[in-house]
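can u pls check wat happens w/ adenosine-5'-diphosphate
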Amino acid sequence: MSKAWQQELAGIALAGVFLGLAGAGIGHYTALIIAALLLYLAWHFVQLTRLTLWLRSPKRHARPYSVGLWRAIIELVEELRVRGKKRKRKLGRMLSGFRESTSALPDATVVLDDRGGVEWWNSVAGRVLGLERKRDKGLGISELISDPVFQTYLACGDYSRPLQMPAPVDDSVNLEVRIVPYGKGKRLLQARDITRLSQLETVRRDFVANVSHEMRTPLTVVHGYLESMNDSGDQALSPWSYVLGQMQQQTVRMQRIVEDLLLLSRLESHNNIEEQEVVDMSALMSVLKEGAEGLSAQNHEVAVTVEPGLNLYGSVTELESAFSNLVFNAVRYTPTGGRVTLNWECGDEGEPCFSVTDNGIGIAPEHIPRLTERFYRVDVGRSRQSGGTGLGLAIVKHVLTRHQGRLQVKSEPGKGSTFSCSFPDSRACWESLENEKKPLTSRSL
Ligand code: ADP
């Protein structure tokens, strides 16, 4: 028990003894006790009122002076108050330090509440996203940034990849936007200016496209002359026939690389597929089978399975190019006598899927994540020998991305590989249903 409480109880006991003696003297016990209790209550009431006034407005009312238990209580309250003020000052310092550091960040940062309203943003965000403190605080970010691509990104909830979009205030500025969820439903939006990077990327793309384009004509000319020389039957050229044959082979290889590079830069430079239609998959599968048999020259068994009535909505030229790359790879990397199976089916969740399975040389697991990189080959010599450009799977990846598809590779060295391309179910077109449906050109994905 604290000293104040001991003193209070001792005072009460002393008053009791005094009242007992006085009561015995004058013979009015009850009246005396009631009077004493009323006085005691009045004292506490006055103390309580002074304490309340002081707590409510400490600036207008001085700290109450008191004795005993009340003094101890007032001192305790004062101590708690001082501690609270210190903590508040410390938090304030931390908060302003945090704000200063985020303001100094070169990237735009916006704090979004659980309903997507903007709570706070740094000065870069104000400049780049066009936010104004008085006007926009508390408004939804979807109302403030109206770009439809951003709206879809915000609504989809999958923020594992950043989004690239033009800055709302200036189309020439390119932003990379990232959203990081944290706390209870809160999100942190970060936007980085990647204009320079995008410009460099465009320069690189244009350079590759221009070089490839410029090389096309000279290569065609050289190849044409070499062909004429080879076919001329001129005896004077016979000592050179081996050399001419090799030169012709190499020009064909270079022509293929140039064509693949041009196709890749076309795929990269237009984000949207220009011409989409319902691709007749059973017809395309027949074309792919014929191509595989032509390349194999009867050295492989080529089998095809097709889901009847299932077609795919997309660009026929791009899809044919991607699928034939996979089919030709299967033939090229499967030794004579092997089997190649082309499969077109509907997956368990309604997603259309094209796959090619072979029982060829297979691929070691460490190479699989890098296969879609340009010019990445497991065995450079073998790829060249079989007429590969090293660009086939990069083309496949680009075409699939443009069709919101996914490439999956399963392979075991010595046993074979399966390359599967799955597409969203919105790209599936069932023949019987499609006949009753709206015009294909207005199909929304
Ligand atoms: P390339 O023109 O060299 O075939 P790709 O981009 O088409 O280039 O393929 C990249 C590499 O992936 C190939 O060099 C090869 O090593 C490997 N690869 C692709 N498909 C197969 C397959 N079906 N079986 C084994 N290896 C494959």
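The first strand starts at residue 108 and ends at 112.
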